Amino acid sequence: MPTSSFTSASSAVPCPVVESLDAILPEEPLLMMGAGPVPIPAAVAKANAIVINHLGGTMVKVIGQVKSMARYVFQTNSKWVLGVAGPGSAAMEMAISNLAWEGTRVLSIKNGFFSERMAEMGRRVGARVSTLDVADRAVASLEEIAGAIRRERPEIVTVVQGETSNTVWNYHLKEIAALAKAAGALVIVDAVCTLSTMPLEMDAWGIDAVITGGQKGLSSIPGVSLIAFSDAAWERVKGRTAPNAHWCLDASLAENFWHNAGYHYTAPVSGVLALHEALRLVCAETLEKRFARHLKCSLALQDGVAAMGLRLYAPEACRLNSVVGIEVPDGFSPADVCSHISRMHQVEISGSFGLPIVRVGQMGEQCREHNLFRTVHALGRTMVDLGVRVDLPAGVAALERGLSGGK
Ligand SMILES: *Cc1c(COP(=O)(O)O)cnc(C)c1O
Fold first, then answer.
1. Statement to judge: residues 168 and 305 lie in one domain
2. Atom of ligand 1 nearest to the CA of 193
3. What pairing do the DSSP bridges indicate for beta strands 168-169 and 162-163?
4. Mean pLDDT of the chain
5. Atom number in ligand 1 closest to CA 215
C-alpha cells in the first residue's frame, strides 16, 4: 500500500524552530525618533488591528471619508485622490508610471537620494529623464530651474518638498510649480516626509500630482500610501494609448476601487482603517495647529542640539524641519551613535545613506514634548558615553526655552 504523505516520517523541508515575537521584540518598545516609521497614536493602532470586507457598504463609507480628509490634507478639490497598497515609493511609482512613458521628457530636480529615485523610476518607464543636479545642502535657484526648463522643455517636472536624505527643504516649491506650469509641464511633488508637517497647497500652487506615505508626517502605519492627481494630470492618465506596464499601480484600474466601489486588488483594509484614523486626527487638530506644533517642536529640537555643542547639517535657509540632520563628531560613524542610543537609551534614530550625519525625525507623534526631552537627553548622554564633549544641560535648557516660548 502506498504510504500517505501525511504519515511520511519527514518532510523535505523541515519545520523551522523560531523564536516568538515576545522573545525577539524588546520588553519596552523603542522610541521611534528616526526618519520613519514614526510612533502611531492609539486610535491608529486600534484601527490597524481590524479586518473588514474590502468591498461593501462599510468600506465604501471609509474610502469616501479617507478621500475627503486627504483632499483637506493635500489642499485640493480634485476628485482624483487614490490610495495604494505599498510604501511611499509605490505612490511615487504610481505618479511616474501613469504620467510618463517611452519618450516622455522628464526633468527631475535632484537634491538627493529620494529625488533621484523619481528620476530612476522615470528612466525605467522609458522616459527621457534629465536631472538638475543640486549641490548637497543647497536648493536650486529659480534661475537655474527656469534655465533647465527652457533647455529640456519637459512635459513633467519632478521635485521633492523635503529631501529627507540630506535634510534639505525645497522652500521654493510654489515658485518651481509656477515655472513648470508656465512652460506647460505637469509637476509631481514628493511630499512623503512633509505632508501635514508644513504647508503644501496642491491647488493654489498648481501641483499636478502629490504623493505621500503613511509612516511619516501622517503618523500612520507603513504600507498604505496616498496620491492625488489634478484634473490635467488625470486627463493625461486617461489619454495615454499604451497601458501602464505596472498593473497594480495602474491609476485607471485603481479608480475601480477608489471611486467606483469595485474590485482592483484586495485593499489593505487594516492599513486603510489606520490611515482613516491618522487623517481624522489631522482634521481634528487642523492643519494650522499641526504646522505650528511641528515648527515649534523642530526649532526647539534644533536649538537644543546646537546648544549642546553639536552641528546641524543643513544651513538654516534651506533646513528641513520635518527631519533634522546632525553632524556626527569626528572619529565616530553614524552607526556608532545610532546603535549606542538604541541599546543604552531605547531611542531609535537614523543614519543617512553614507552621509556623516544622524537624523532625528519631527513628524507626527515625534513632535511631542515628552518625546523631545527623552531624545535630546538620550542623544546628549550618548555623546557623553562615547567621550564627546557636549553640554547636555545647556541642550535640555535650550529645548525647554524653545518649547515654552521663553528666551
Ligand atoms: C521616506 C521617503 C520616501 C520613500 O518612502 P518609502 O515609504 O520608504 O517608500 C520617498 N520620499 C521621501 C521624501 C521620503 O522621506
1. no
2. 15
3. antiparallel
4. 96
5. 7
* Four-point Cα dihedral 211, 214, 218, 220, nearest 10: 170
pLDDT number for residue 11: 81
Does residue 3 fall inside a structural domain? no
On the 0-12 / 13-18 / 19+ scale of CB atoms within 10 A, 401 is middle
Q: Are residues 77 and 185 in the same domain?
A: yes
Count how many domains the chain has.
2
- The pLDDT value recorded for residue 130 is 98
| One domain for residues 348 and 374 | yes
Quote the domain boundaries for residue 230.
42-285
In this structure, the answer to whether residues 234 and 210 fall within a common structural domain is yes
Does residue 2 register a pLDDT over 60? Answer: no
Rounded Cα distance between 233 and 238, Å, is 9
Ligand 1 site-directed mutation target among 38, 89, 225, 322, most atoms within 8 Å of CB: 89
For residues 197 and 190, give the distance between their C-alpha atoms in angstroms, rounded to a whole number. Answer: 13
Q: Closest ligand 1 atom to the C-alpha of 191? A: 13
Q: What percent of the chain has pLDDT over 70?
A: 97
Residues 178 and 211 in one domain: yes
Residues with CB under 6 A from ligand 1: 36, 87-89, 114, 160, 162, 164, 190, 192-193, 213, 216, 222
Residues 162-182: tens digit of each pLDDT:
999 999 999 999 999 999 999
* Residue where a domain terminates, one of 250, 285, 320: 285
How remote is the CA of residue 213 from the centroid of ligand 1, in Å? 7
Considering the entire predicted model, what is its pTM?
0.96
Q: Is 364 left (phi over 0), alpha (psi -120 to 50) or beta?
A: left
In this structure, are 303 and 172 located in the same domain? no
